[in-house]
Amino acid sequence: MIKIHSKTLSDLEFPTICAHVSDLCTTEKGKAKALKLAPQRTVEKTHFALNQTQEYIKSQYEEQPIPNHGFDAIDHELKMLQIEDFTLELGSFRKISGLSATANAHLVFFKKFREIYPILYETVCDTEYTTEIVDEINKVIDRFGEIRDDASPLLQQTRTAINQVRGKINSSFAAALSQYSGYGYLDDIRESIVDNVRVLAVTAMHRRKVKGSILGNSKTGSIVYIQPEATMQHQRELNNLQYEEKEEIKRILKALTTFIRPFQELLKEYQRLLSIIDVISAKAKYAKKLNATLPKISEDRELHLKDAYHPLLLLNNKKRKEKTFPQDISLDENNRIIVISGPNAGGKSITLKTVGLLQVMLQSGLLIPVHEYSRFSFFDKILTDIGDNQSIENHLSTYSYRLKNMNYFLRKCDEHTLFLIDEFGTGSDPELGGALAETFLEVFYERGSYGIITTHYANLKMMANETDAITNANMLFDASTLEPLYKLHLGEAGSSFTFEVAQKNGIPYSLINRSKKKVERGKIRFDKSIADLQKERSKLAKTTTSLKEKEQQAGKRQQDLDKINARIQDKLESYQELYDSNQRLIYLGQKLNDLSEKFFTNKKKKELMDELYKVVQIENSKRKKQNARQKRIEKSKAAAIKREAEKKVEVIRQEKKTEKYKKQKKEEAKPKVALKIGDRVRLPDGRAVGSIDDIEKGKAIVNYGMFTTNVDVDKLELVQPAKK
Asked: Which of 80, 110, 328, 541 can bridge 121 by disulfide, Cβ–Cβ 3.0-4.6 Å?
């Protein structure tokens, strides 16, 4: 059974993660449930929760997206349904109908696509599917949230009568309005509304001449509002019908409430189910914000974090547009405990919290920001001692509190425990506190626990160096500037750089020297050795980086040389082929020339033909015999070679054209120089340089010594300005 203490969750700032997830929920019930997120009690439940989130994320890439899960909470309605004879209001039925319809939509969807979403189907499959609630409510309430006319025969009959009476009222009022308006008894506004009743706007002097009931008057008293006598009887009838309508609506809603009352447990289940889906959806959204993944879950006891980010730090740095440095950390059977040392403000505590928070998030069903090749296993207990926990209420000092915490650790620690302790052993005398901390660490080691601690104690560094399965580590620093690099390095302890940091912050060297004399020489030498090792490693890292860069550059140059060599080789081969072809043609030409001279001398035609035939036979014997198909293949190959050559020529032509265009643009971009008499100039494409004798109307007379010419000033290029 997995049980992780609330103090651990608080130390690792897990409630802040829950608050972030809660903000991404769309329903109030979902928000409340997200705030209560906690590690699952069993490994099976943890796997189930992680797969729920993973499936919801994958739904974004499916053709059939998961339906909307939004709903209004009905806690008040469920509470009222427990009261006998209580009638729900109209708005309550709308909320119940919406909840039921949304839940049913999810039940149908996950059943239909159970092969795509097997885990989410398993989440909803035990919930009952029924349309009775929605169907019954839809019989009474329309899509606008109003009682339907046909909700009952009596209501339909009453509303029909109401409409008829309203028609009579309107017609009788219109007649009275027309009559008294003709008599000139009405004010300019003619009519008004008082208490939802149409009235005539009668001038005060004529009020006794209009038959009806006075319902009011204007502020000045100049107008009296009178309901005509002809409409009063119909109005009384309308009031009676409206009362009957209200009573019938009450009866209908009471009957509907009675029908809904037996479904209380099912409605609670619907609400619970949709709030779970809301939390799963929020987890998926949060994973997207963090670019989180589901790492491999190993059955062996191991933790291998690759490119792990602290979630809260990652989001804060994204807002500030600052870089976040990932960490690589490994814990396994051969390396169960890591002792991180080094100066403060180097990232030791963040590294510690990153491991703990990611572990807690994963065991709570949240995906985490690590590389997908990372491997995790689950721990039954995660124990933390992070930060200053001095208690004024309990009259405990920091060290007393930490000792009580260590006592709790010693009682709970076993092979299924992950412990995370920041500034291990601090708060007491360094010698005595360090000895006690070393003893605690021995107990944790003997019990097979996994853990990470940060410390400045040299004896703990020595113990890690001498004990199997305990490894020293340090946060890397720049050797020259002592600025943190926020990178964990396993295998070596870290120096605190106490005196170096003090000197960097302006503490006089004389005081630092006095301080060194107060410390045992062996400790200074030990710390100095560690510091020197870190500096050497820093230099080595820089050298390695430089060598890699040079290696990449050399590799690139080698690739360029190989390409040039291949092009030269192709040219040599083509030149060789051309040379061989030309030699053969020269030989044939020489042979034909000899035959021509011989024929010129002896005029023997038959002998000439025989010799020519021999030459042709010799040349044909050198050619390969090819059928029609082979000829076509050779022809197509030749055509392909020709096309390739044409492409290369075109590419070269385009490159030259582009280069010329760039050069032209570059020339155009150059600031124009105002030419004057005596300047030495030349044409852009010419080599001859002359001097300007005169400039007039944009034309310059350029003297080249042997001759002069008239050229546009814009076409000239300055070579050397005139000497002053």
From this structure: 110
CB-CB contact of 493 with 339 (8 Å) = yes
H or E segment to which residue 60 belongs: none
Tens-place pLDDT, residues 554-595: 888 888 888 888 888 877 777 777 777 778 788 888 878 877
Q: Which residues pair with 471 in a beta bridge?
A: 338
Q: Are residues 288 and 376 in the same domain?
A: no
Amino acid in the structure at residue 339: V
Give how far Cα 116 sits from Cα of 38, 119, 124, 479, Å.
27, 9, 14, 54
Instruction: Collect all residues with Cβ–Cβ distance below 8 Å to 474 and sequence separation of at least 6.
Output: 340, 341, 342, 488, 489, 492, 493, 494, 495, 534
Residues 139 and 186 placed together within one structural domain of the fold? no
Q: How many domains does the chain have?
A: 4
Alpha-carbon Rg of the chain, whole angstroms?
Answer: 48
Whole-model pTM: value is 0.66
In angstroms, rounded to a whole number, what is the distance separating the alpha carbons of residues 432 and 437? 9
By C-alpha distance, which of 168, 183, 240 is closest to 200?
183
- CB count within 10 Å of CB 322 equals 9
Please write the tens of the pLDDT for every residue from 179-219: 888 888 888 888 888 888 888 898 888 888 888 888 888 88
| Contact criterion met (CB below 8 Å) for 510 and 565 | no
